[in-house]
UniProtKB/TrEMBL annotation:
<dbReference type="GO" id="GO:0004739">
    <property type="term" value="F:pyruvate dehydrogenase (acetyl-transferring) activity"/>
</dbReference>
<dbReference type="GO" id="GO:0009083">
    <property type="term" value="P:branched-chain amino acid catabolic process"/>
</dbReference>
<comment type="function">
    <text>The pyruvate dehydrogenase complex catalyzes the overall conversion of pyruvate to acetyl-CoA and CO(2). It contains multiple copies of three enzymatic components: pyruvate dehydrogenase (E1), dihydrolipoamide acetyltransferase (E2) and lipoamide dehydrogenase (E3).</text>
</comment>
<dbReference type="InterPro" id="IPR001017">
    <property type="entry name" value="DH_E1"/>
</dbReference>
<comment type="subunit">
    <text>Heterodimer of an alpha and a beta chain.</text>
</comment>
<keyword id="KW-0560">Oxidoreductase</keyword>
<keyword id="KW-0670">Pyruvate</keyword>
<protein>
    <recommendedName>
        <fullName>Pyruvate dehydrogenase E1 component subunit alpha</fullName>
        <ecNumber>1.2.4.1</ecNumber>
    </recommendedName>
</protein>
<dbReference type="InterPro" id="IPR029061">
    <property type="entry name" value="THDP-binding"/>
</dbReference>
<feature type="domain" description="Dehydrogenase E1 component">
    <location>
        <begin position="30"/>
        <end position="316"/>
    </location>
</feature>
<keyword id="KW-0786">Thiamine pyrophosphate</keyword>
<dbReference type="Pfam" id="PF00676">
    <property type="entry name" value="E1_dh"/>
</dbReference>
<dbReference type="InterPro" id="IPR050771">
    <property type="entry name" value="Alpha-ketoacid_DH_E1_comp"/>
</dbReference>
<dbReference type="InterPro" id="IPR017596">
    <property type="entry name" value="PdhA/BkdA"/>
</dbReference>
Length: 363
């Protein structure tokens, strides 16, 4: 299968995109990728400093999620995995909320009940994230199926990694979507490792995109480090979905340059030479070179963008670290419209214990 590509590794155009992308959108794509990269770096450092408990980075994969999210309409649904912060930022998720969720403070809409990197925003049509691998795939198909039944002009995009294609949820969702021509876009972020398991130990298929054939719809292999190509593939898939032509599987070939998470040491299962090879295909540098070549960006403007983004991130962190933690009493919220008597008793007891502990500590 041929790989869809618009930019070479240096950022030189080798094929004009099938869709015109306005200059303002190109710059927004680039700045969103920069924001994601800098947030990644800062959150990783904060975890190592003990200021947050856990983090999953996406360094090197920015073009995959920014290129795809920017090709959708605001009315479309996005079912996130835990490695697409830029898609959330593009859709409008505030940096304040993102950092609050990492810290689990009182500004966290999930009230500290989710692991870090497990954000969501119903108002932005961003599904909440869960840790079990692949569970979001059939859920996204269900959402898109509902849109079709209700005759809504919207599609659903679901992100997942290459490891999720080894799960039953992936195949169940693909089969259902193919049979019923569900308006869904399956976007596999093939970063080539399922934690420590390399792609060649997961599948004997030449590409993941080939798997779409078995379910009766199109599979597309795209350079996941080429934001223009990812945009083109996703927009084409979205148009097909809206026209009643069913789903598309997009395999975005990229690379996870960092660890799987802050609990992982990738040096145990891959060589540094491999990582260095992919650093030369950096999606942000490619996009920067492309913008410089088109005179849409100067080195001075780029330096200003980087400075402004870094300052914004630090400002938000300082702000959110002053916010207190979620009150323990919130444990009893959001399950019942009216709290049952047994839970009322438990809540009262807990409050008495906490108050007693507080009184003793102040003596």
């Amino acid at each position: 299968m041929n790989m869809l590509q618009c930019l070479d590794d240096s950022g030189t155009i080798i094929r004009e995109p099938a869709y015109h992308i306005e200059d303002a959108i190109l710059l927004k794509q680039y700045k969103t990728m920069l924001l994601s990269r800098f947030v990644d770096d800062r959150m990783f450092k904060m975890q190592r400093q003990g200021r947050i408990g856990f983090y999953l980075s996406s360094t090197g994969e920015e073009a995959t999620y920014v290129g795809s999210a920017s090709a959708l309409e605001e009315r479309d649904w996005i079912f996130l995995c835990y490695r697409e912060p830029g898609a959330a930022f593009w859709r409008g998720l505030s940096l304040n909320f993102f950092v609050a969720q990492m810290m689990g403070n009182a500004n966290d809409l999930t009230k500290g009940r989710q692991m870090p990197n497990h954000y969501g925003a119903r108002a932005l049509k961003l599904s909440s994230i869960s840790s079990p691998v692949g569970t979001q795939i059939p859920q996204a198909v269900g959402c898109a199926w509902a849109s079709k039944i209700l005759k809504k002009d919207e599609t659903t995009l679901v992100y997942f990694g290459d490891g999720a294609t080894s799960q039953g949820d992936f195949h169940t969702a693909m089969n259902f979507a193919g049979v019923f021509k569900v308006p869904v876009i399956f976007l596999c972020r093939n970063n080539q490792f399922a934690i420590s398991v390399p792609l060649e130990h997961q599948t004997a298929a030449l590409t993941i995109a080939d798997k779409a054939v078995a379910y009766g719809f199109e599979g597309i292999l795209v350079d996941g480090n080429d934001v223009l190509a990812v945009y083109e593939a996703t927009r084409k898939a979205a148009e097909k979905a809206r026209n009643g032509e069913g789903p598309t599987l997009i395999e975005a070939l990229t690379y996870r340059r960092g660890a799987h998470s802050t609990s992982d040491d990738p040096r145990m299962y891959r060589k540094d030479e491999e990582v260095l090879k992919w650093e030369k295909r950096d999606p942000i540098q490619r996009m920067k070179n492309y913008l410089l070549g088109r005179n849409l960006l100067t080195e001075e403007e780029n330096a200003r963008f980087e400075k402004e983004i870094q300052e914004e991130i630090m400002s938000v962190i300082v702000m959110e670290e002053k916010i207190p933690t979620v009150p323990v009493s919130s444990l009893f919220d959001d399950v019942y419209a009216e709290l049952p008597s047994n839970l009322k008793n438990q809540k009262e007891y807990l409050m008495k214990v906490l108050q007693s502990s507080k009184n003793n500590s102040s003596k």
